[in-house]
Hints:
The structure is a single chain. The radius of gyration is 25 Å and the shape is globular. The chain folds into 3 domains: 182 residues, Rossmann fold (3-Layer(aba) Sandwich), CATH 3.40.50; 191 residues, P-loop containing nucleotide triphosphate hydrolases (Rossmann fold); 114 residues, no CATH class. The longest helix is centred in the N-terminal third of the chain and has 16 residues. It is of the alpha/beta class. The strands form 7 sheets. It has an 8-stranded mixed beta sheet with strand order 4-3-5-2-6-7-1-10. It has a 6-stranded parallel beta sheet with strand order 11-18-17-14-16-15, with helices on both faces. Strands 23-22-21-24 form a 4-stranded antiparallel beta sheet. It is 29% helix and 19% strand.
Amino acid sequence: MFELRDYQLEALDAVEKSLEENRRVLLQAPTGAGKTVCFAELIRRFMTRYPGMRIALVAHREELVKQNADKLLKVWPGGFMSVGVACASAGRVDTMKPVTVGSVQTMARRKFAEPFKLIVADECHHIPNVESPSQYFDLFRAHEERYPWLRVLGVTATPYRTAHGPIYGDTRRPDRTNFFPRLDWKITLNDLIGRGYLSDWRGKIPADMGKALKGIAKSMGDYDEKALSREMSRPIHIGSAVAAYSKFGEGRRHALVFAVNISHAEVLAEAFGKAGLKAAAVHSKMSGEARRAALDGFDAGELEVLVNVGVLTEGWDSPAVDLIIMCRPTMSPGLYVQMIGRGTRKSPGKEDLLFIDLADNWKAHGDPSSPAVSWGAPGGGDGEPKEPPMKICGNPDCMSLVPLSAKACPVCGWAFPVKKTAGKTPEKMKTVRRDPPAPSPAAGDAAPRGRGRPKPVSGWVMFPYVTRRGALMARLDVHFETGRPTPVYLDFEGRASGFGRAKARRLWEKLSGGGAAAPETVDEAVARFGSELAMPKELTAAKDAGGFSVIGEWQ
């Protein structure tokens, strides 16, 4: 039996407890955390305690089905005779065993002699909102009709989707309903790096893609693939990728490059090859044999650079990856996190992961441990400008991502210039962006101005937010049926002031009806927000004495 890590045991205890009380349970853990081991151990425990139980483990791709079946039998070798695989594309459809590991496409079309009592959905961010037709819902309903107490456990590293927002609770687009009512347990990338289980990462930003991406059309919540490929295949961008590897990739032996589409990947692989590097492209049009040969060659060190198109973001593990080059801009925070996650596993001789962002993804999504998540476009998705909680070192030989609060680059020592304000009056000083004011008793008691009439509230979303001064807060964006949303900054951890913390706690207790103690941390607030707070039907957007947007009734 596998020896589980401390956090894996924590996760299993939390999930088991939640499954006793709730029909839909959601677990979040980053790539490399061992999610497959967790749900495999959960299945082993349940089948040991309840031998007659029926359990399904579903995924959306053949590779994941095979991987899940293999890992389940490694965790539970005694279950060999109890596990069947149902995946038509893999040539196996065995639905008679107590545990069925299969693709949702195959299982949604099959009738089973006995209903499942638990369905585990891997990469569950692919489950859409409940208003959308889906083979997932076909599968769930078919078994729920025969067993009304059916439990569904969703597991993912990225519990959010582009143009939708989080996949749980009420933090969503107003016209969509999430399948999962809450996030029951989570652990972040930074948590696992801090505990020593995953490799630390460093970022380099040698290019600014803002102007190049400004004119790219949008399609299905992301950049239009053809238009994006044309732009990123231009010689200047292809040359930038090779130059970035040459400049920053010294000593890195396993570089993974993310491309827009097949033609872009092949152009990139050819360019790296012409630069004297052993490179290859992998994509969906290749035969399985050719793809396996490329992956095996990369793992063995025979290839230095592997360029891929969408096939290595979920379910592929190569711990030796020590360099990631992003040549694929994306509006999807999930894809951004999945790309970086391909290199966060530890490996002998690997000190850390270096990622080179040539796509401005860091600017759109921020810290991969807690990316900005909204239901719209990069920049907040709601018309509000968003600034990432990082900045770029000004040394052209360094260009490292560093915290906004850094006065000097921790990598090369380059000192960030101090803005001079001498001779300027506050009225004449230009402000690029203002942080939420540090709350004080006086400011808290000041009456908002320009209240106007209350407006219907159409939705709200909460996410972690780091100010320019480096203070971590929870940002609550209140969306109205008309007009721009109003951001409310909640200082649960008292980073700006003790009064701000008290004010955040009072507001939480007001909106939750006082049923539970207010959160102590921002992460806790974001996790509990969707299930504990009640959205008002209407509120008043106002301005405080400093000109900041506020909610009149909450002052």
